[in-house]
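Changelog note: in this version the structure field was regenerated for every chain. One regenerated record is shown below for reference.
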Amino acid sequence: MITRTEFDVLPTVEKVYTLFDLGDELDVREDRGYRIKLYLISDFFVELWFGIKHPEDTQMISLSEEEVMEVYSERIDISQGFTTNL
C-alpha cells in the first residue's frame, strides 16, 4: 500500500505506473478543456487531467476525501471505497 505523501514525492513516471497498477477508475468528467479521470488508490484519490486540445498538457493531482466530496458527491458514491464511514 502506498500513502498519499509517498505518492506525491514520486517522479512523474513512477506516479503513472502506480496510478495504473494500483488505482481504480471511479469517474470521468470534462472541465475547462480537460478530460479528468478520478482514481482511488488505497485511501486517497488522484485526478488525472488530460488536455483535450493539448494532450501534452497532462497533470496528476492527489486529493483527500474531503476535496473529492466537494466535486464528486452528486456524481458518484465514493463511500464504498473506504474502510471508514464518511
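Spot check on this record: Helices lie at 4-8, 12-22, 65-72. DSSP finds three helices and four strands in the chain.
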